[in-house]
Amino acid sequence: MQNFEISVLDLAPVKQEKTIHDTFQDSLSLANHAENLYYKRFWLAEHHNMESIASSATSVLIGFIANGTKKIRVGSGGIMLPNHSSLVIAEQFGTLESLFPGRIDLGLGRAPGTDGLTAQALGRNPAIINQQFPRQILELQKYFSKENSEALVRAIPGEGLDIPLYILGSSTDSAFLAAELGLPYAFAGHFAPEQMEMAFNIYRQNFEPSEYCDQPYIIACINGVAAETSEEAHKISTTLFQAFINIIRNDRKPFAPPVDDMDNIWSPMEKTMVLQKLRYTLIGDQAEIEEQLKSFQEKFNVNELMINSHIYDHQKRLDSYSIFRKAKDAILKI
């Protein structure tokens, strides 16, 4: 098993009976906790029109988190690039990198991060997305380059800054693109695990070294719920299960506290659908997490594991990341 980094994906989850201000303070608290535990990076994901997720103004929230931390890398997991002008994103992340040198990542996705009607309100044109997304990545690379200083359109701040780009995906399409461009690749296994193994194989087999990355670099994002006991871990994981039930039912309400029995909430068909989507979710006490981490790495051998923990109680969420840190360290000492 190769050494691997661990990182945090945060969606700025809004919980029942909590305000969005509370959500942002919890995100900052989690980022500080992750930094103290030597997590590699802390990413925030762009979503829109969801009562349960408050990370819509992703660049603004990245600035808030970076300002409240000292060393951990902070970035987007990701910016949904076709929702934006390439120039505006170059300027925003150029500003962030200028404020927090050497700490900003720019993860890029092509999905809308929302429903179809909201995607229209964002100005997306679905007919050109497959051509637009690769072109915009090349535009970003141009805006960030020193060579663009003679161009008529320049990104200031942004020009000449070393801001790492990462391609995000939830299917095999972005695996081909990341391999072709020679960029690191992050897969959304926390909600779309079906094609993860195939996507990693495609990326590795087709990777072309570039000035940005000389060999494949893979980040797998998965859900993780750890606690002192297995029983507690499985109980607090019901917040995650309920969140996926809400997705199936097209209900965007805030995250709910854990329950004793999910069978009172989901139907047998919904249970099957949720468990299929959460097939790579790691749940348990430290010993169980160690075994699940080892099993995952033996299968996928990724460079980095990015953990998303939908846990209602904030302290238990912090505790979960502490247990993952201990579990990762333990298996690498074996």
UniProtKB/TrEMBL annotation:
Residue ranges of every copy of the Luciferase-like domain listed in the record: 19-113, 153-297
Pfam families named in the record: Bac_luciferase
GO MF term (any one): oxidoreductase activity, acting on paired donors, with incorporation or reduction of molecular oxygen
InterPro entries (alphabetical): Bact_Lucif_Oxidored (IPR050766), CmoO-like (IPR019949), Luciferase-like_dom (IPR011251), Luciferase-like_sf (IPR036661)
Cellular compartments per GO CC: cytosol
Entry-linked SUPFAM superfamilies: Bacterial luciferase-like
Membership in a protein family: To bacterial alkanal monooxygenase alpha and beta chains.
PANTHER family: LUCIFERASE-LIKE MONOOXYGENASE
Protein name, per record: Luciferase-like monooxygenase
Originating organism: Chryseobacterium takakiae
